[in-house]
Amino acid sequence: MDMKQLKYFKTIVDEGNISKAARVLHLAQPPLSQQLKRLEEELGTVLIKRYTQQWELTETGETLYRHAVRMLQDIKEIKQEISEIEEGIRGTLTIGVAPSCVGFLPPKVREFREKYPNVFIKVWKEDSSSLQQLLFDGEIELAFMLLPTNFQDYHVIHLPQNPFVVVIPSRWKSQFPKDTVKLKDMIHYPFLMLGPMKGYSMYEYILGQFHKHQFSPNIVMECKDISTLLSFVSAEIGISIIPKSDIYGSFHQDLTALEIEDFSLYVEPAILYRKQHRLTKAAEHFVSGWIGSEGQAP
After folding, report:
1. Which terminus of the chain faces fewer neighbouring Cβ atoms within 10 Å, N or C?
2. What values do phi and psi take at 162, rounded to 5?
3. Residue 293: inside a domain, yes or no?
């Protein structure tokens, strides 16, 4: 018994006789009668009792008809869902986002949801190094993250550069009379260093900026997690330098960010996805909203 036989049987019952069913199915009547006979032989039962002027469905025929309706509807819905997934209007979109890139995501997700409301979105929030591993393992398709040193294996959509700021406890603001600060102004304070991450040179670059001006920060702590680092700044343990966008993603209200006058370093946020991985249509639709004329985010 296959789906074609179930379709034939359902049509016969729906139309009330084989002649009408044959016309609907664009078949000759004898082959359709043969299909019904084979189905009954296979199941070892009479599905339809035939009389001279009429016929009636048997109990087994009613049972098969009920299942045929459900199974044919299921097949129709499966085909529809697969088609919608292939078109990118249904399915699941998996995205990873680094803390420094969170601000880029909500407006685009809202815009995407307006166009594709049936796509389910899963978001991972991890540091950029962890996101690379999630991309490699296939757990996520797209990663909003800092551009790694080695990105040859990825397609890259560049996002606007993000400057660094110095973060201080708000209660220390009186010690910094301006809204900007110079590196030499920081060396007298305990410094909480954003720890090194595999594949990224941010740690070395920050130290390099100090050494370029012949200063050395008074490093008393290292921490790789920015949220945790900000908790220590909030507790007045020291000051730190982080990407500007990270301070706005923080829930700490007692922090103040100051622009750095003599600090030329920027972080480069980007959307990355693997070259050797075929994106789902949903991911393609999402990415298309970010690509400008030269692979830059609009």
Report:
1. C
2. -120, 120
3. no
- CA-nearest of 118, 113, 108 to 87 is 118
* pLDDT, tens digit (0-9, with 9 covering 90-100), for 96-153: 998 778 888 888 899 999 988 988 999 998 888 889 889 888 889 999 988 887 888 8
CATH, residue 74: 1.10.10.10
Q: Pick from 292, 250, 242, 247: which is nearest to 266 by CA?
A: 242
Cβ atoms of 277 and 185 within 8 Å: the answer is no
pLDDT in tens, 69-85: 888 877 876 776 676 66
CATH of the domain at 274: 3.40.190.10
Strand residues in 109-171 grouped as ranges (E): 119-125, 142-146, 154-158, 162-169
Number of domains in the chain: 3
Residue 29 phi, psi (nearest 5): -65, -45
Range of the domain at 17: 3-87
The H-assigned helical ranges of the chain are 3-15, 18-25, 29-43, 59-87, 105-115, 128-137, 202-212, 226-234, 244-248, 281-288
Residue bearing tokens 């985010």: 297
